[in-house]
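Let us work through a complete example step by step.
Step 1: write down the sequence.
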Amino acid sequence: MNRYLYDGTAEGLLSAVARILSEEADPDQVTLAERENTFFEEGIYLATDTAAAEEFFSRLQQQAAEAVYTFYYFTMTEREGMETSMLRYLALAMQHGNKVNGYLTHTAVKEIVTVSRKAGRELHRMKGLLRFEKLRDGAYLAKMEPDNNIIHPLALHFSKRLRAEDWFIYDVRRRTAARWHRGTLSLGAIEQFTAPQMSEEEQAVQELWKTFFGTIAIPERRNPRLQKSNMPMKYWKYLTEKQGK
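Step 2: predict the structure and record it as tokens.
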């Protein structure tokens, strides 16, 4: 069984898969992993070929558009050791097209589809749960600690909806931030973060929101289990209406 290595990037993964599928008769007899650069590491290193990655991605779009979305969400999961499963998933996608996501009895398909859907659901959920606070300088800040690395697509989402404002989204867990300033979106790492002070207007608005949230609740219709299902407790830390609860 041949073992291949790649550089750990999404582009490198696509490039490696394209090379393997073009040279190996049976992808099920191949393994793929991220290179660790250790002295005794075994495997054939496949350098990233940008043109090959783009060509393979284009063919995948034409033959299995659903698989493109699955791959896109997979890149946000930061799951290690699943490259072989992705290789086999993409090989099946090129054979069966959009039907591939229905082949959940296949171990690789089930693994890839499961983690990708979780990332997609979290991205969708955070579009509604992210809370921006107005700072003293007039900009807005939203903090989060998602399970998946969704800051880029999330920032793209808000760049279309909060175009007139200056804002930041800070991923506390990964120490990365997205900034929207004067129509330009930028992303980068933050080594040390000191939370700026909220504006007095924001403090007043938050108090009003908490009062409103508590007032409209109907005691007889409280359903904590349903609430936690729709709005898991792991997200409550940065929800204005949940502060102090």
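Step 3: interpret the result. Residues 168 and 179 are 5 Å apart (CA to CA).
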